[in-house]
Amino acid sequence: MSPNDLFSTLQQQLGSVLPELARSAHEDVQQQLKAAVMSVITKLDLVTREDFEIQTEVLRRTREKVDQLEARVADLERLLNASTDA
Fold first, then answer.
1. Spatial separation of the C-alpha atoms in residues 9 and 15, rounded to whole Å
2. Of 25-29, 32-36, 55-59, which range is least confident?
3. Start-end of H helices in the chain
4. Average pLDDT of the chain to the nearest whole number
5. pLDDT for 1 beyond 70
6. Planar angle of CA 47, 65, 74, nearest 5 degrees
7. Which whole-number Å values give the CA distances from 57 to 16, 48, 52, in the listed order?
8. In the chain, what is the greatest distance between 2 CA atoms, to the nearest angstrom?
9. In this predicted model, what pLDDT tens digit does every residue of 50-66 receive, in sequence order?
10. What Rg do the C-alpha atoms of the chain give, in angstroms?
11. What is the model's pLDDT at position 81?
């Protein structure tokens, strides 16, 4: 077998093996990267969008209630001051 034939055969064999190795390596790197990202996200103690929106609505309603109660207290204080002045 001539050196050119040997090189051609080797090139063909590597050509058939390398794409499989590259795909396998790509999948392995992708899995490791996904695991690393998930680990970081877990450590960040993040909440879901749904939980965030629920808490935002609870906070909005609580703020409304506080505003109503502040107005009511102010009215009661005015009534109390008016009755003590009379």
1. 10
2. 25-29
3. 3-43, 49-85
4. 86
5. no
6. 145
7. 59, 14, 9
8. 121
9. 999 999 999 999 999 99
10. 36
11. 92
Residue 46 backbone dihedrals phi, psi, to 5 degrees: -85, 160
CA-CA-CA-CA torsion sign (9, 12, 13, 15): positive
Give one word for 68, left, alpha or beta, with left for phi > 0 and alpha for psi -120 to 50. Answer: alpha
Classify residue 77 by burial, with Cβ atoms within 10 Å: 0-12, 13-18, 19+.
exposed
Dihedral-angle region of residue 3 (phi above 0 means left; psi in -120 to 50 means alpha; beta otherwise): alpha
Distance CA 64, CA 4 (A): 84
Residue 85, pLDDT above cutoff 80: no
